[in-house]
Amino acid sequence: MAADPLTIAVCAEDPAGADALALVAELSAALTAITGASGQASFDLSDVRGAGACFALARDARGRALGCGALRPLDADTAEVKRMFARPGTRGVGSAVLGFLEGEAVRRGYVALRLSTRHVNQRAVGFYERHGYRRIPGYGRYAGSEVSVCFEKVLAA
Question: pLDDT tens digit string along 35-55?
């Protein structure tokens, strides 16, 4: 299912839609295999539905769902990136989703994005570092966590 980055379309969609739920379930299974936890405890669909929030899906030219990600407001200036996932074998999907979310964050007036992943998830750690996210101390529920690594990116207006 290799995807040509030029044929990836990302847009905001309902997080309760069938494709969104399928991708989130795949992400949960993948995270359980990598980290021993699904990450579902720190995600609620209602968090990405309200004002300032966004759930995004990436699709190929045939309309097949390839990846997802979400923005959850933390405060007036900062949103959190949640549920980032690209189906295995796709190329450029994660970058396309993250780029879309960063653009949405700027459009919605956010100054920075934050996120947390686990140290053991080295693929995710490398992905965020390559996309300009810098490590920060744990925030919110991740403060003091020995398994989490938190990141932040200040957005250009």
Answer: 766 566 566 777 888 889 999
Residue 71 to residue 53: CA distance in whole angstroms: 5
> Among 96, 99, 108, 97, which Cα is nearest to 72's?
108
Whether pTM > 0.85 for this model: the answer is yes
Q: Which domains does the chain have, with CATH numbers?
A: 5-154 (3.40.630.30)
> Residue 6: its pLDDT value, please?
56
Q: How many whole angstroms separate alpha carbon 32 and alpha carbon 27?
A: 8
Closest CA to 9 of 101, 71, 105, 100: 100
